[in-house]
Write a structure and sequence with these properties.
The protein is an alpha+beta fold. 41% of the residues lie in helices and 19% in strands.
Length: 480
């Protein structure tokens, strides 16, 4: 390629605290506009901020998971700029002395690669400008300050990514980790995870960076990739035409599939940073870091590797089962109780997740205990019920809370393993389907499946599949 893109990301993640970073107002999403506000988050004169301890612990947890060095002392600063949704006229953030430095995250797009981090710092969110939904939206902008003061961490990468696909994968992997830790809910539609992308292009082989553009507030992995692909092509076209790329902030228009200019790109000096006089330095000693570390669970990638090694699962299964910490925990409990890890994987990934998805639920809502699902698997393993019957039993267990054993006993669903009873059904099927029998004997093996199906139908789905196959084969061969 003649040109090489250079990409760095700035990702804003809302921390899952009940209250805002500097006051006691709720962070719950969806409340009526301007109902979750107070003098502190509205920036009224005389109101003083008080730092949320839980927000700090969540930020430390995220930094540790990303391999960062948590700083013993960090400092909050005022970042000055003037927008309608910023009530104080400045944002409390961290600048010269952030909470954590360095760290990184491994990705695999285009080959194994480590994306280094510059920093992780804490800050408050701004409010939200509303440009539509009102009778006079064409003339006025409304502002909702409910989001003002919501706690954020900003995760800033080094400019290590060289393709839009790498950037999208990094964003996705980062989201998985933050959600896994429970520090962020991963809900990009509600704005609790947002990505700004800095992108430039340079002639292949050149060491110096080109002029960058910042694409703001992209809220999905797919749009990050599409926005960067568009922006890379746009900058290359400018250079190829003899023009000069302008440093600016741009917005992604998903409907039009393009970016457009929003404003000239600010530099750090434009924000006139200075230490926040109403907050002392944040001191995080080694004991506090260790206390937070002890609350952390095994991270997704490590757990995926363990699932493959310890349970003998395919990598695909391990990937699905580690979509969340709660799902991984559920699987492990089923596998331990059932003594059959592959069957546990199949049922959790199959019927359980399908049922949850169909009903718009998550693993946190599942009414079926791991031991109950293990009981169903045990009945299949010992041949008490067939796989097809088991699916019906599962549905009844999910809705009623009854155990598999009780449902099978009460409804007479036990698998027929009596040879004489099944032999009678087999012979009846052979007698009633002479054409299929003739085709089988003529070498059309596919008709065997049809005959098996007819036997299973005749047994009400309760025939032991292995015994049905044996008896049908024996009878067909004997009569030929």
């Amino acid at each position: 390629m003649k040109y090489e893109p250079v990409i760095g990301l700035e990702i804003h993640a809302q921390l899952r605290t009940r209250t805002k970073i500097f006051c006691g107002c709720s962070t719950a999403f969806g409340a009526a506009p301007n109902t979750q506000v107070c003098p502190v988050c509205l920036g009224l004169p005389g109101a003083l901020p008080v730092l949320n301890r839980q927000a700090v612990d969540y930020a430390i947890k995220a930094a540790l998971a990303l391999g960062c060095q948590v700083q013993q002392e960090s400092v909050f600063a005022r970042k000055n700029y003037f927008y309608p949704d910023l009530p104080k006229g400045y944002q409390i953030s961290q600048y010269e002395r952030p909470l954590a430095l360095h760290g990184g995250l491994d990705i695999t797009a285009g080959g194994a690669k480590r994306i280094s981090l510059t920093r992780v710092h804490m800050e408050e969110d701004a409010g939200k400008s509303l440009h539509e939904g009102f009778p006079d939206s064409d003339r006025r902008t409304y502002v909702d300050f409910n989001r003002s003061g919501v706690p954020l961490i900003e995760i800033v990468t080094e400019p290590d990514m060289r393709s839009a696909a790498e950037a999208a994968e990094f964003f996705s992997c980062l989201r998985d980790i933050l959600v896994w830790l429970g520090v962020n809910d991963g809900n990009m539609e509600e704005g609790s995870l947002r990505c700004d992308a800095n992108v430039s292009v340079r002639p292949a082989g050149q060491r110096e960076f080109g002029t960058k553009a910042e694409v703001k507030n992209v809220n999905s992995f797919r749009y990050v990739q599409k926005a960067l692909e568009y922006e890379i092509d746009r900058q290359i076209d400018i250079l190829e035409g003899g023009g000069r790329v302008v440093q600016e902030t741009r917005l992604w228009d998903s409907a039009a599939g393009r970016t457009f200019s929003m404003r000239g790109k600010e530099e750090a000096h434009d924000y006139r940073y200075f230490p926040e006089p109403d907050l002392p330095p944040l001191i995080v000693d080694a004991a506090r870091v260790e206390t937070v570390r002890l609350t952390m669970t095994e991270l997704p990638e490590a757990r995926r590797r363990r699932f493959v090694a310890a349970y003998g699962l395919p990598e695909y299964d391990a990937g699905v089962l580690t979509q969340s910490s709660a799902l991984a925990d559920y699987f492990e409990q089923v596998a331990a109780a059932a003594g059959n890890s592959k069957a546990a994987s199949n049922w959790v990934m199959g019927e359980l997740l399908r049922t949850l998805n169909d009903r718009g639920k998550t693993i946190d809502d599942v009414p079926l205990t791991p031991r109950a699902l293990a009981g169903l698997i045990a009945l299949i393993d010992k041949g008490a019920i067939s796989s097809s019957i088991a699916k019906d039993v599962f549905a009844k267990m999910y809705d009623s809370g009854r155990t598999a054993e009780d449902i099978v006993a009460e409804e007479g669903l036990a698998q027929i393993g009596d040879e004489s009873a099944l032999l009678s059904i087999v012979r009846d099927v052979i007698g009633r389907h002479a054409d299929a029998v003739a085709q089988y004997r003529a070498g059309k093996a596919a008709t065997f499946g049809f005959l098996v199906g007819q036997v299973m139908k005749g047994s009400g789905g309760k025939g032991n599949p292995k015994l049905v196959n044996q008896l049908l084969t024996r009878e067909l061969d004997r009569s030929s």
